[in-house]
Request: fold
Amino acid sequence: MDDESTRSKSAVVIRLLREEDSLEALTGLLHRAYKALADIGLRFLATWQDVEITRQRIAEGTCFVAVIDDAIIGTITFKMPHAGHGVPWLARPDVGNISQLAVEPAFQNQGIGGRLMRHAEEYAQGRGLAELASDTSEQARHLIAWYERLGYRGVDFVQWEIVNYRSVVMSKSVTTG
Ligand SMILES: CC(C)(COP(=O)(O)OP(=O)(O)OC[C@H]1O[C@@H](n2cnc3c(N)ncnc32)[C@H](O)[C@@H]1OP(=O)(O)O)[C@@H](O)C(=O)NCCC(=O)NCCS
Reply:
């Protein structure tokens, strides 16, 4: 017989963002999730971005949401390789990357973030990519360690103009066999 935690885990569904999903709600989720980073002085874009920026960032890729009982409690945006940002690793034609990764604070530490990452990895693999990358503040040791536990390794550094920290680019092979 299922216990409550098993039922709650199995009820989380990852799906594409839909037209009718509220970007206001999604932006609120990003702010709540990233607040802990703002509180330690790291001004990630998602700590303060408005709805229009959320919309623009989603338009750069494919946005997935984690949903439980019709409520969005997590999100990740996958982006195909693209040049123009001056980061050689991210410009590689076989390296996708993710952004706007967040899980509602009350639902963190239940494996949902890991599921969102695996979903993006499978999506990248399905598009013939060799690697999936993400980047985070080099000061966010806990996030770097989290990515490392998921199999990511540091491959580069980048200083985005819009944030107040240097970022480390983390990447993982998504090819099998
Ligand atoms: C980073 C973030 C997305 C991770 O999401 P999450 O859902 O908490 O991630 P997970 O639950 O998969 O992993 C967190 C921990 O919970 C553990 N965990 C996984 N399943 C679990 C379960 N069923 N029960 C208890 N713990 C579990 C994981 O092992 C992991 O432990 P670790 O940190 O020691 O590796 C989330 O913390 C977040 O939104 N942070 C703020 C925004 C942010 O930092 N975004 C990334 C910017 S680069």
Notes: The chain has one domain: 4-132.
